[in-house]
């Protein structure tokens, strides 16, 4: 059986502190990109609802915008979803 000496206890504390520091760095690395992408997705969905595009797309109404505008709206929304998911 090994006894914990003050030397071993000091090493364990150092390892635990290093682990906590690495975990904190990992959280910080993802926090800002995740927050940014969530904000962008929220903004995009708000635009779709406020501009009536979502209603037009789901109810097969004649588009108020050109086909290129519709395509841009769809592609940019898909991009925002993908970015929020894999950031």
Summarize the structure.
With 87 residues, the protein is mainly alpha-helical. The chain has helices spanning 6-50, 53-58, 67-86.
Query: What share of the residues does DSSP label as strand, in percent?
Result: under 5%
| First-last Cα distance | 47 Å
Question: Strand count, sense and closure of the main sheet?
Answer: none
- Helix and strand succession? HHH
- Which bin fits the share of residues in helices? over 70%
Identify the overall geometry: rod-shaped
The number of E-state strands comes to 0
Please indicate the count of domains: 1
Coarse structural class:
mainly alpha
Q: Tell me the number of helical segments per DSSP (H or I, 4 or more residues long).
A: 3
Poorly predicted regions: none
CA-atom Rg in angstroms: 25 Å
- Report mean pLDDT, rounded to a whole number: 77
């Amino acid at each position: 059986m090994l006894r914990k000496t003050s030397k071993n206890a000091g090493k364990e504390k150092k390892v635990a502190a290093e682990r906590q520091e690495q975990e904190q760095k990992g959280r910080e690395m993802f926090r800002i990109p995740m927050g940014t992408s969530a904000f962008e997705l929220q903004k995009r969905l708000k635009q779709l609802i406020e501009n009536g595009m979502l209603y037009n797309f789901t109810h097969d109404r004649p588009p108020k915008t050109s086909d290129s505008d519709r395509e841009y709206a769809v592609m940019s929304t898909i991009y925002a979803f993908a970015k929020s998911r894999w950031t």
